[in-house]
Recover the amino acids of this structure.
């Protein structure tokens, strides 16, 4: 008997659930969109870049598990977020999961980072999570659904070699917001959890290593991981899958670090 590939097998851990997923155009968002579709979800993804969003949709279709790609959606603009969410709710009749993956930080040493870059980072890492959660909340209450927010190891500990003060502040806020929404969600049956990736093998990290090699600011973090290499984005997607599916129905208010052990090993 010929063994089926993972793209041909639908396990169904998210079968028929309507999942709103931000930032599907690349990296962890793309891997999550493809995985969730394979697991039976109706994925309604968005991205600010139409080209990369459509590429993710093409890859999903090739695997036999199509997704809906909506782009461009600027998550810093409330009306655009509301339109994306409401259109999905009208089309599918429900929203079961909101997965806040998208983020766009700017990095600089704390002492010299501009106000503009700080505000930009907060808008593109905290405000967009707040906004999507608030606008999707009534639908999630109706469906007894759940939220998965993507935090970061930066929100849990500092890094001497990486100038990430604005990013750390933003992701720390995401983790705090997750806990508070989990508390408020208990009364209405909405679960809220987060996943905090470490250094993952995404395009920006690849570019950093190409340009700086062993001098990459993330190198001291990566050296502490179980493999000594940046992580595979699919690892984050699998953690998010657990939190999003019914297997985690008694799990709320938690954060899962997916960092290869870097946050625990000095």
């Amino acid at each position: 008997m010929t063994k089926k590939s993972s793209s041909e097998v639908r396990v169904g851990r998210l079968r028929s659930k309507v999942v709103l997923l931000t930032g599907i155009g690349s990296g962890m968002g793309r891997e999550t969109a493809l995985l969730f579709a394979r697991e039976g979800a109706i994925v309604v993804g968005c991205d600010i870049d139409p080209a990369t969003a459509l590429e993710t949709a093409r890859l999903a279709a090739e695997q036999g598990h199509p997704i809906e790609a909506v782009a461009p959606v600027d998550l810093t603009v409330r009306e655009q977020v509301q339109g994306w969410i409401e259109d999905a709710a009208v089309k599918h009749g429900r929203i079961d999961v909101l997965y806040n993956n998208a983020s766009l930080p700017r990095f600089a040493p704390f002492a010299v980072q501009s106000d503009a870059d700080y505000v930009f980072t907060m808008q593109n890492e905290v405000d967009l999570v707040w906004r999507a959660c608030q606008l999707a909340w009534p639908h999630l209450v109706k469906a007894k659904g759940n939220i998965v927010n993507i935090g970061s190891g930066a929100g849990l500990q500092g890094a001497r070699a990486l100038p990430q003060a604005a990013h750390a502040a933003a992701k720390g806020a995401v983790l705090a917001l997750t806990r508070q929404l989990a508390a408020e969600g208990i009364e209405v049956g909405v679960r809220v959890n987060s996943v905090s990736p470490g250094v993952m093998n995404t395009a920006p990290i690849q570019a950093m290593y190409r340009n700086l090699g062993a001098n990459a600011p993330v190198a001291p973090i990566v050296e502490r991981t179980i493999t000594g290499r940046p992580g595979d984005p699919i690892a984050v997607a699998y953690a998010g899958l657990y939190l999003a599916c019914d297997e985690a129905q008694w799990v709320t208010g938690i954060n899962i670090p997916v960092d290869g052990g870097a946050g625990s090993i000095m």
